[in-house]
Amino acid sequence: MRAATVVGMVLLCGIAQGAEPKTVTNSVGMELIEMPAGTFTMGSPATGEAVQVTLTKPFWLATTEVTQGQFKKVMGTEPWKGQGNVQAHKDCPAMYVNWNDATAFCQKLTDLERKAGTLKAGESYHLPTEAQWEYACRAGTTTEYSFGDDEKQLGEYAWFNGNAFDAGEKYAHKVGMKKPNPAGLFDMHGNVLEWCSDWSPAVLPGGSDPAGPRSGSVRVLRGGAWTNSPVYCRSAMTRDGVVPSGRYPILGFRVARSHSNMIVEKRRQGTQAKPAPQVAAAERPVQLGVKSNSIGMELVGIPAGKFTIGEGDGAVDVTLLKPFWLGKTEVTQRQFRKVMGTEPWLDKAVVIGEDNPATCVDWDAATAFCQRLTDTDHKNGKLPADESYRLPTEAEWEYACRAGTTTAFSFGDDVKQLDEYAWFSGNTAVEAYPHAVGLKKPNPWGLHDMHGNVWEWCSEWLSDSVTGGTAGVVWADERVARGGCYQDSDVCRSTSRFFHPTDTTLNDLGFRVARSQSAK
To answer: Is residue 161 within 8 Å of 155, Cβ to Cβ?
Structure first.
């Protein structure tokens, strides 16, 4: 779809002057250009808001905004259909797409290409960070625009108010019709504003691989639109952002793709770690098999046994007298919707996906899910009368997570291996949301995502320390959550615990179910 050939490439932080950039074309006909690692000044010194940024990893970025044709091919929907200020055409930008839609598109495209074998191991599609976006827009330049400081040239490179809105063409135009920037990217200075992965920061984030604040109320937009004046189309123009559920005729997005080289290197480092020390084979509990229930949820049989819960001075010995079943994964959106008929994560900063964790679920909703699933499976004869679904106790959760290990993680003590087992801050900086369950390696008992992805509700009220013995519930104001989440790294250990009031709903908080074992 490129309307011009990139000639005389400027020096782009590691790309030799005059070199032709590396490009790839994916399964939906989207062309992406390789962006090298490098350092640049983000923001504008003229406004007093400028920071040094180093991007330590190369990445790929689409040459154009995602088109209506590409969006429909992947998602099967047309959010812009029947809306105002739209030029309907397969080569026009996909508009009226909110942040949740854009991230869902990235995940679904990732899943489709992984299944088809057309995406390299370790690569995934995502929204660019704000830093990646400006770095690519500047393409080695330090001027107001990627083509210089003269805004009179803007019409050659962008659709903005001067040649669109004020000219009576009140809509976004076909992508790739204007001149590209020095990196070969089209429409970086106009047409539609583009979603970035970051929450909107109070100040520009500097340093290495910045990904913005960990939370917020609005997501960053970059690039200017067909309604904007030239000042809002500059390389450094930072928008205040829009709530993730926002849908407008000036909002679209382009996708980035992680680079496989860095993932391979991380895995190579991880293989040097020592294997997890295990309890002696003669003493190690044995996993009791796997069974499925009426909604397709797989549960792993967890044996009775003894272990040490917690760490350091707070560690205590625990005996679990009864075996139990535990969900192989966190409860998914599909499973929650099938049982409860509701979707509490809608219009939140959550990727919509059948296999993504059910989040924004408070403790009462999680326990109601367990009760309703129990009632349903009792009625259809799928659950013995003396068994029921429930949230695991904190002791059951850590016992199952450890799976016979005594190390910081169920796979050992080396945090460099965490990428193989968990979604955490180290691999979600540009994919800042919970991911589909079961994509990472399981622990020794076959349980996925025990380290990271989303925090998981437990049944107990919070106590100041973990409780030992055979049982024990302390009543307080907050409930325990375990496991860490996609935003964490240091609190993804087997012993990590957190707490929330029972009415808390967060996009990094979900649950997995336990099931009592029949006495028979």
So the answer is: no
Question: CA geometry: angle at 187 spanning 185 and 188, to 5°?
Answer: 70
Contact 186, 63 (CB under 8 A): yes
- Number of C-beta neighbours around residue 485 at 10 A: 30
Verify that 290 and 359 share a domain, yes or no.
yes
Look up residue 218 and give its DSSP letter: S
Each residue of 238-263: pLDDT tens digit? 666 899 989 999 999 999 998 764 33
> Which secondary structure element, helix H or strand E, spans residue 354, and what is its range?
none
Task: Measure the CA dihedral 100/423/451/454, to 10°.
Answer: -10
User: Which residue range is the domain that position 358 belongs to?
Assistant: 275-516
What kind and span of H or E run contains 372?
helix 363-379
pLDDT in tens, 141-192: 999 999 999 999 999 999 999 999 999 999 999 999 999 999 999 999 999 9
Whether residues 300 and 245 share a domain: the answer is: no
Nearest alpha carbon to residue 485 among 456, 443, 461, 455: 455
371 and 422 both lie in a single domain: yes
Report residue 425's pLDDT band, with 50, 70 and 90 as the boundaries: confident
The answer to whether 225 touches 190, Cβ cutoff 8 Å, is yes
What distances in angstroms separate CA 255 from CA 55, 65, 259, 301, one per listed residue?
Answer: 17, 8, 13, 41
The pTM score is 0.63
